[in-house]
Amino acid sequence: MTPFRLLHRSSTCAARCGEISTLHGAIRTPVFMPVGTQATVKGVLPENLKDLGAQIILGNTYHLFIRPGHQLIRTLGGLHGFMHWQGPILTDSGGFQIFSLRELARITEQGAEFRSHLDGSRLFLSPEDAIQVQEALGSDIMMVLDTCIPYPATRQEAAEATALTGRWARRCRAALSGTGQLLFGIVQGGMYTDLRKESAQELVDTGFDGYAIGGLSVGEPKELMLSMLEATVPHLPTDRPVYLMGVGTPEDLVEGVRRGVDMFDCVMPTRNARNGMLFTSQGRLVIKNARYRDDPRPVDEECTCYTCRHYSRAYLRHLFQSREILASQLNSIHNLHYYCALMAAMRDAIAEDRFDEFRRQFYARRQSEAGSHHR
Amino acid sequence: MTPFRLLHRSSTCAARCGEISTLHGAIRTPVFMPVGTQATVKGVLPENLKDLGAQIILGNTYHLFIRPGHQLIRTLGGLHGFMHWQGPILTDSGGFQIFSLRELARITEQGAEFRSHLDGSRLFLSPEDAIQVQEALGSDIMMVLDTCIPYPATRQEAAEATALTGRWARRCRAALSGTGQLLFGIVQGGMYTDLRKESAQELVDTGFDGYAIGGLSVGEPKELMLSMLEATVPHLPTDRPVYLMGVGTPEDLVEGVRRGVDMFDCVMPTRNARNGMLFTSQGRLVIKNARYRDDPRPVDEECTCYTCRHYSRAYLRHLFQSREILASQLNSIHNLHYYCALMAAMRDAIAEDRFDEFRRQFYARRQSEAGSHHR
Question: φ, ψ for residue A313 (rounded to 5)?
Answer without folding.
Answer: -60, -40
